[in-house]
Amino acid sequence: MKLDLGLNKNAVRMLTGFLFGWIVAECIVYGGLALLGLLGVILAFATKEYVKILNHKGFYPSLKVIYGTEIALAIIVYFERFDLVAATLTICAMSSFMWVLFVGRQPYIANVATTLFGMVYCGWFPLHLIFFRNLECAQYDSGLGFVIMMLACIISTDVGCYYVGTRWGKHKLAPTVSPNKSIEGSIGGAVCSVLMAEIIGIFFLGISWWLSLIAGVICTTFAQIGDLCESLLKRDAGVKDSGDSLPGHGGFLDRTDSFALTIPIMYYFVKYFIFKTEWMGATVEFIKGFLH
């Protein structure tokens, strides 16, 4: 049963987007258990939607195994026990094989593969947000500002792609995967992301223009790739939306697809190229000495 507030489609979409965005922003600012709880809710819905999409294709990944993996990884990530990640993924991967062995449902190979993919795509990638938020160094205090930069760049990408694509889009970006997306829209989204990254990076975070540029390019590139990847899954399975949990927006997987790939890439970029740059200076000096 759906709740009818007497609003048109655009109003419902805006209201849902505002409420969802406000909750996400609050949880990210508070961090800790609030952020863990937010990710727990999102992962629970998104994973169920992922399995449902694969069911339409005739594949049957194990929802229980994926949920179990996500819970284990969430605990490890929360306590920052990097040393246990490899062991956890190994045990959970073996569990997917044992699930197929005992359940015995066809197609065996596809069921194992989609279960393994679900662990990473729906669990391990998004959970990097906790690592990202908890980054620390003397100069920047925490990763909060960079998480906000990432979110702003992804939103700017979506807005730029939509408005530029709607107005000037003529050349299809990926017609077989997402026929409504255009090259012009993609470029518009990229420009908006880079501009947003430059503004936040230079004036609020105090990083150089070229690091801000790279951050903007990373965000828009992987946000658009993530969007196309989810579109690929839905088109291959023959479904339009991943679900209807978010009125006017489809499912949780539809709203978070741009973040799934961007979060881990931005985390590693900020960690190794902004927060810990000692090795970069040594590498530059080595190259200079080698050239001379």
SSE arrangement:
Layout: H1 9-30, H2 32-57, H3 63-78, H4 85-103, H5 108-133, H6 144-168, E1 172-174, E2 178-182, H7 183-205, H8 209-237, H9 252-260, H10 262-275, H11 278-291
Antiparallel strand pairs: 1-2
Explain this structure to me?
By secondary structure, the chain is mainly α. The chain is 76% helix and 3% strand. It has a two-stranded antiparallel sheet. Strand 1 (172-174) and strand 2 form a beta hairpin. It is globular. The model has no long low-confidence stretch (mean pLDDT 87).
Essential attributes:
single chain, 292 residues, mainly alpha, 2 domains, two-stranded antiparallel ribbon, 11 helices
Summarize the structure.
The chain has helices at residues 9-30, 32-57, 63-78, 85-103, 108-133, 144-168, 183-205, 209-237, 252-260, 262-275, 278-291, and strands spanning 172-174, 178-182. It is 76% helix and 3% strand.
